[in-house]
Amino acid sequence: MLEGGRSKSRVSVRTSAWWRRALVPFLILVLVGVLSMQGIRGLGQWLVVADPLERARAIVVLTGHVPLRAMEAASIYRQGWAPEVWLTTEARSAEEAAMARLGLQVTRGETYNRAVLERLGVPHEAIRMLSEGAHNTAEEVKLVARELERAGGGSDRVIVVTSKAHTRRVRALWRALVGNSPRAIVRYAADDPYDPGRWWRHTGDALAVSREVFGLMNLWAGFPLQPDRR
User: Fold this and answer.
1) Which residues pair with 185 in a beta bridge?
2) Domain extents for the chain?
3) What is the CATH number of domain 49-192?
4) Of the candidates 44, 95, 55, 25, which has an alpha carbon nearest to the alpha carbon of residue 183?
5) 0.90 exceeded by the pTM?
6) CB-CB contact of 84 with 58 (8 Å)
7) Count of helix runs (H) and strand runs (E) in the chain
8) How confident is the prediction along the chain (230 residues), in pLDDT tens digits per residue?
């Protein structure tokens, strides 16, 4: 009886391994289909979304693309759309851990973001660092939703600032992981150099598009692949 159980377990492991190997070419085929349907130009633009601004509990700066996201958050704050700016933080990477073991200090992105916000007129007391580190955008979304619930105050929304190509996936992740309440108003950094009409001409833009498309397909498929740990 025990041997039979082990045999079934081995079959299950082999099936799982086969599924993972088959998933990559399947996603590539889906990507080709998306490119065919949307067109090269249309795909780059399709990734960019922006929700109308509304009064919110806080403006959230997702990690990455320093200082552009923080600059946009400061602009939204000065317009009076929210009383606070929240900064998400990245979980410590293996590289940072190695630097620490060597006794070398690492200045993290959220430290620069705080400095940018203060330089652009956001008061020190209006900036809140979310101490729990996140490995990826999905974890950031969950963290912000929990913080919004804890903060209370009657508001059921936050303004989330990210980069242009990342906006559609942030919106989709929020809806999939959090739902429609509380709500995220997704905005992008105006100074982001991403060119949606000619994204294939620049390595950085091409990498951003491929990452976002694969990330969206992974989300729609129910996360068969674990999101990247930055």
Assistant:
1) 159
2) 14-46+200-230, 49-192
3) 3.40.50.620
4) 55
5) no
6) yes
7) 8, 5
8) 445 554 555 555 555 555 666 666 666 666 666 656 556 778 899 999 999 999 999 999 999 999 999 999 999 999 999 999 999 998 888 888 898 889 888 888 999 999 999 999 999 999 999 988 899 999 999 999 999 998 876 678 999 999 999 999 999 999 999 999 999 999 999 999 999 999 989 999 999 999 999 999 899 888 887 766 55
